[in-house]
Structures are given as structure tokens and as C-alpha cells.
Design a protein that fits this description.
The chain is α+β, with helices and mostly antiparallel strands. It has helices spanning about 30-45, 70-75, 80-85, 125-135, 185-190, 250-255, 265-275, 275-280, 325-345, 350-375, 380-385, 395-405, 415-430, 430-445, and strands spanning about 5, 20-30, 50, 85-90, 90-95, 105, 120, 140-145, 145-150, 160-165, 170-180, 195, 205-210, 225-230, 230-240, 245-250, 285-295, 300, 305, 310. It binds flavin-adenine dinucleotide (FAD).
């Protein structure tokens, strides 16, 4: 095992440049993926350097966790701290303007009844807990330090990482392996030219936090609500400090239709007014802070790992936030990633199997959720969600999937297949509606210039 050790490296001019620090692992980014893998690897005795461009606590969107995420919090041992800052989330409410009734699904009714709840969290606090935990486990955490360049070695021996601190100082690391957990900045995927736009999906979001929102009563208070409307859907995420996060996920061309003289805040409020049941709950609400928008381009990357690097979480793929799967997939990728790094650095006999498992897990999460994400605004899917039946345990299987229970042994897949068959049969019986919906979707997901530019590598967050 290598420990940190500084060695002066000569610059091209012959003058001594800043020392290059040897380390086992450099992790780019201290979000859920980066902090989790750092904690796991440091806990196993590796020398881990985590470079984070921001200073925690810092704002991040993505506040609704999944029940399957709870077990992962036990292993970095932060479950109690997350419980203290989280709002209990026991289920999902679906509200559709095209249906009379509302539907509430409880995770306790999923196939596996042992994971009945999750939390809604302020990501600033949640991510702070995770990065502190990484430091507590022994990772060297450098905040306010942006990775600028990575030179990977093809022989699998790692690479050189150059980073810049807020004060302008340049830091250089020679790592045996580089882990990219830079989120939607997709640092390495951009550098390697490996990022691919998802041709099957495209959406954008605007969001803000409100106080005085009418919430569901009692135990349902912390449920996430999904409200469909003409241009997409809204999330409604109640937080434990009394604020409620509201976000509109809409087609990029809708976001683009904002008139020049309408501020983002006005446009957001106009959009909320289009969804009467949501507007009702916000009757007495007040917007806290500003409204933000993000061009939420769906993408994946050709490879999740190479001889000297790994990509985790959003640094590998992002699809859409509708099933709140992002944080869970990011943290789960850190667990399989930690296993692969351990094998590469210490257990060569296991590398092949660990690589296969890592690749499989990285593809599986986005793939299983994508089938539902692509169809969530389809009227047939909406009908099925609004009147969920449990034939062949279909409802239990769907709830398990929505809970994130997709990597274990819960035998949901035959029932998920039955659900998909029911969807296809219903679509065929409503052929005209199905074709109309397909045509509309093709137009809706077209590329337009949204905040940040449609091909911008980094997400754009535009203040009101
Ligand atoms: C509109 C919207 C709503 C969402 N809602 C949800 C939700 O309700 N639930 C959910 O689970 N997920 C949600 N997500 C997804 C969720 O935000 C992400 O999937 C999750 O944050 C991914 O974690 P990560 O660790 O991979 O990346 P991130 O959390 O993005 O962390 C990446 C970190 O890397 C740092 N970084 C980036 N570049 C560099 C660099 N060059 N050098 C150093 N540091 C760098 C960043 O500052 C950041 O701290 C949502 C996403 C969007 C866009």
C-alpha cells in the first residue's frame, strides 16, 4: 500500500514545479458518489485524495432519496445523522389532471417489505455529512480545489492529476487510479470524448423552495408528490425545515418559450398556475430565495472504466430525475467502484470478476429506470400508474423498482415484464392515442438551445 509522499518534479524550464504527491486514489468531486467511495477506500487503508471544487455545505439539487439507499447509509455509518436532518418519506403520490382520483403508493407494500421508507434531504446538509464522513475515515479532503487536467497512463498504472485551489495554487498528484465523480460536469467523459447525448430523452427543469405550502396530513406529510401537467411534470418534496422543494421538469422547448420580458421566477409561477392541483397547495405559499433552471441533458458514456480510471454516478450517466434514482445510483456505483479499485490495487486475481460486475451494475441502473422514464408522460403509462392493480404482483414489483430494489435478489423481474406487457397491450388497443403520443414525444424531445446551450458539457443553473 502506498502512503502519501511528496517528490519534486522538474518543470520544462528546469525550475522546480510544485511537488507531485503520490497517492493511491484521486477522487474528483465530493458529491454522494465521490464521498462514499473515498470513505470506503480510506476505511480499507488506501491513501485517498478527494478533490472538491466547492466548499461544503454547498447547494445541490436532488433532494429525494430512495428506500434502497438506506442500507448504503449504514455502511459509511451516517444513517443517524441523515435521520436527524431528513424528512421521512413513506411513499409517492401521483396527481394527474386527466384523472379524478389521486393515487398514493406506499413503499411498505413493495415486494420486499423490509425497506418501507427513505428521507427527503437538503443536499447541502446531506452531502456535507458524507464528505465529513470521508475525512473522518481518513481520506484527505481538499475543498475549493478544481481538477483542471488528468493525464491517464494506458498501462493501467494510473495518471497525473492537476488541480487548482481557490487561492490559485496548483496541486499535482500521481495516483495509481483516478476516480471521476464530478457529477454532471462529466470531467473525464468530456476529456476522453466519451460522452454521448441520449437520443431517446431530453428534458429541462426549473425549481425553487417555498414556505407555507399545504402538505399531506400525518405520516403522508413527507411523501414525494408527482403532478403531471401539459408540458411535463412537477416534483413536490417536503423538507424537514418546513420548506418544500417544487420543480417543473418540462420539455426543453417549453423552457425556451419564456418571453424575453418574463423573469425566470415569473415564468416558473406561470408554469405552476398551469397545474391547478399544485397551485391549490401553493395558494398561501411564499417563494424562498430564487428560482433556478437547468438544461438537464440526458447522456451516457461509452465506458464506465478504463485501465487507469473509473466513472461513478452522474459522471457516467444521467437520465432524468422522475424516479429520484440519482443519489442512490451514485452511492451504489461507489460501492461496486470501491470493490473494483480494491481488486485492481491489491487483489489481481479478482480484477476480471470485479470489472464485469462494475460494468454490469453501471449499465443496469440507468437502463431499468429509463424504460419507465421515457414513458412517464405517456397517457397509457399514466393510466396504469393512476390505477395500479396487483395482478401477478405487478404493483409490488413496481414499488420495489421505485424503491430502488433492483440490484439484489428480490424476484421482481417476471412481474415487471408482465407490467410492460400490459402497457404494450393497452397501447395497441389505443393505437391512435399511442401514435399521437409517440409523434408528440418525438417533437418534444428535440434539441433546442436551453440555458447553458444544448451541447454544453456542464449543467447551467440560471438564477432568476
Ligand atoms: C433537476 C434535478 C432534480 C433531481 N432530483 C433528484 C432527486 O429528487 N433524487 C435523487 O436521488 N436525485 C435527483 N437528481 C439527481 C442527483 O442530483 C444526482 O444524480 C446526484 O447528485 C449524483 O451524485 P454524484 O455524486 O454523481 O454527483 P454530484 O452530486 O453532482 O457531485 C459532483 C461533485 O463534483 C464536484 N466537481 C465537479 N467538477 C469538479 C472538478 N473539476 N474538480 C473538483 N470537483 C468537481 C461538484 O462540485 C460536486 O460537488 C436530480 C437531478 C436534477 C438535474
Amino acid at each position: 500500500m502506498v502512503t502519501s509522499q511528496a517528490a519534486a518534479s522538474p518543470s520544462a524550464t528546469g525550475r522546480s514545479a510544485s511537488p507531485t504527491i503520490n497517492t493511491d486514489v484521486v477522487v474528483i468531486g465530493g458529491g454522494p458518489a465521490g464521498s462514499t467511495i473515498s470513505a470506503l477506500l480510506a476505511g480499507r487503508g488506501f491513501h485517498v485524495t478527494l478533490l472538491e471544487k466547492a466548499h461544503h455545505p454547498r447547494f445541490h439539487i436532488g433532494e429525494s432519496l430512495l428506500p434502497a439507499n438506506m442500507a448504503l447509509l449504514e455502511r459509511p455509518v451516517v444513517a443517524d445523522e441523515v435521520a436527524a436532518l431528513g424528512m421521512e418519506k413513506w411513499g409517492i403520490e401521483f396527481v394527474s389532471p386527466w384523472h379524478e382520483q389521486r393515487t398514493t403508493l406506499e413503499f411498505g407494500q413493495a415486494w420486499d417489505k423490509s425497506m418501507p421508507m427513505a428521507y427527503q434531504v437538503r443536499r447541502a446538509d446531506f452531502d456535507h455529512v458524507l464528505i465529513r464522513n470521508a475525512a473522518d475515515k481518513g481520506a484527505e479532503v481538499v475543498e475549493g480545489c478544481r481538477v483542471r487536467a488528468v493525464a491517464l497512463r494506458d498501462d493501467g498504472s494510473g495518471g497525473l492529476v492537476t488541480a487548482e485551489r481557490d487561492d490559485g495554487a496548483t496541486l499535482r498528484y500521481d495516483a495509481r487510479i483516478v476516480v471521476d465523480a464530478s457529477g454532471r460536469d462529466t470531467f473525464l467523459a468530456n476529456q476522453l470524448g466519451a460522452k454521448r447525448k441520449n437520443k431517446a430523452h431530453n428534458s429541462a427543469a426549473m425549481y425553487g423552495h417555498f414556505e407555507n405550502v399545504e402538505r399531506l396530513p400525518g405520516k403522508l406529510e413527507g411523501n414525494i408528490s408527482i403532478f403531471w401537467f401539459a408540458h411535463g411534470w412537477f416534483w413536490f418534496i417536503p423538507l424537514s425545515d418546513g420548506a418544500t422543494s417544487i420543480g417543473a421538469v418540462c420539455w426543453p422547448h417549453y423552457l425556451k418559450s419564456r418571453a424575453r420580458d418574463r423573469s425566470l421566477e415569473d415564468f416558473f409561477m406561470d408554469t405552476i398556475a398551469l397545474c391547478v392541483p399544485l397551485a391549490e397547495r401553493l395558494k398561501h405559499a411564499r417563494l424562498l430565495n430564487g428560482v433556478e433552471a437547468t438544461g438537464n441533458y440526458s447522456y451516457t458514456t461509452t465506458h464506465a472504466q478504463g485501465p487507469s480510471h473509473l466513472l461513478l454516478g452522474d459522471a457516467f450517466a444521467f437520465v432524468d430525475p422522475v424516479f429520484s434514482s440519482g443519489v442512490y445510483l451514485a452511492m451504489n456505483s461507489a460501492f461496486v467502484g470501491a470493490d473494483l479499485v480494491t481488486a485492481r490495487l491489491n487483489e489481481p486475481a479478482r480484477v476480471k470478476a470485479a470489472t464485469r460486475r462494475f460494468d454490469r451494475v453501471m449499465r443496469k441502473g440507468p437502463r431499468e429506470f429509463s424504460w419507465f422514464i421515457y414513458r412517464v408522460t405517456n397517457p397509457t403509462m399514466r393510466d396504469l400508474f393512476m390505477a395500479p392493480k396487483n395482478v401477478f404482483r405487478v404493483r409490488e414489483a413496481l414499488l420495489s423498482l421505485f424503491a430502488g430494489d433492483i440490484f439484489g435478489k428480490t424476484p421482481i423481474w417476471p412481474s415487471v415484464f408482465v407490467f410492460k406487457s400490459i402497457y404494450w397491450i393497452n397501447s395497441a388497443f389505443n393505437a391512435r392515442r399511442t401514435l399521437d403520443a409517440l409523434r408528440r414525444r418525438r417533437v418534444n424531445i428535440r434539441d433546442v438551445e436551453t440555458p447553458g446551450g444544448s451541447h454544453a458539457p456542464a449543467p447551467a443553473r440560471v438564477a432568476a
